[in-house]
Design a protein that fits this description.
CATH topology of one domain: Undecaprenyl pyrophosphate synthetase
Distance between the termini: 45 Å
Helix content: 40-55%
Bound molecules: farnesyl diphosphate
CATH class of one domain: Alpha Beta
């Protein structure tokens, strides 16, 4: 490793290692616009988006942030042109196949959250394979929200709980936040402390509605394929300038 790459991998000195977010969530917005700005088809932006996600994952690992959750495909994304939807779903499959070995080497534990049963069978197969293969890994936890919608997640948790009540397995007064969370797709995962949204949009867009209740939100005009270590450093610096209060 060169001195320069070692310097890049070290936590920047203006960041306090004791006050880093323990879970970062990202809305990876702006792939299409990024490609269009280069005069390229939108799908190339998604391809570059994968590189940006890989770089962010590596950076989290280098800087000691144990969990990263990325919004890869929302329930609303089915409304995009069929070609783009097909490209995205095939891209996820290819990425999983291509990156599995490296994820193992880097000790990444990958998990997908969302309504996965509506995805193509071949993608579901790759997802299962990757989740199973990395289930015991102890390094960074990468969660990929795919066919994910926060409202849908909350509704399906309500349905599961209602069924348990109707079956006499649960009393309504036993329903509390801890129990509710066990029925979310993200059961067992800590809540994000920091949400990053690229491309300037000031919305949560149905992402982790329950889990982001107390997260700090950082929005940057940078388009997702351009979101790199320097940008992440800025986001973490801004995060550490804020006073974390929980009310
Ligand atoms: C938003 O940009 C981005 C997406 C809908 C897809 C993001 C997916 C990835 C980067 C791949 C992740 C893959 C795996 C398997 C981990 P946009 O198209 O909404 O951009 P625009 O706002 O400029 O139109």
């Amino acid at each position: 490793m060169t001195a320069q790459s070692q310097e890049l991998r070290a936590l920047p000195p203006d960041l306090d290692p004791n006050r880093l977010p323990q879970h970062v969530a990202a809305i990876m917005d702006g792939n299409g616009r990024w490609a269009q700005q280069q005069g390229w088809p939108r799908i190339l932006g998604h391809q570059r988006g994968v590189d940006a996600l890989k770089e962010l994952l590596r950076c989290c690992k280098d800087w000691g942030i144990p969990a990263l959750t990325a919004y890869a495909f929302s329930t609303e994304n089915w409304g995009r042109p069929l070609e783009e939807v097909e490209f995205l779903l095939t891209l996820f499959e290819r990425v999983l196949r291509r990156e599995l070995q490296e994820m193992q080497a880097e000790d990444v534990k990958i998990r997908f959250v969302g309504n996965l049963t509506a995805l193509p069978a071949s993608l579901q197969g790759e997802i299962k394979r990757a989740m199973l293969a990395t289930a015991q890994n102890q390094g960074i936890a990468l969660t990929v929200a795919t066919n994910y919608g926060g409202r849908q997640e909350i509704l399906q948790a309500c349905r599961e709980i209602a069924l348990a009540v109707a079956a006499g397995e649960l009393r309504p007064e036993e329903i509390d936040e801890a129990l509710f969370e066990q029925h979310l797709y993200t059961a067992g995962l800590s809540h994000p402390d920091l949400l990053i949204r690229t491309s300037g949009e000031l919305r949560i867009s149905n992402f982790l509605l329950w889990q982001l209740a107390y997260a700090e939100i950082y929005v940057t005009p940078t388009l997702w394929p351009d979101f790199n270590r320097v940008q992440f450093h800025k986001a973490l610096f801004a995060y550490q300038q804020r006073e974390r209060r929980f009310w």
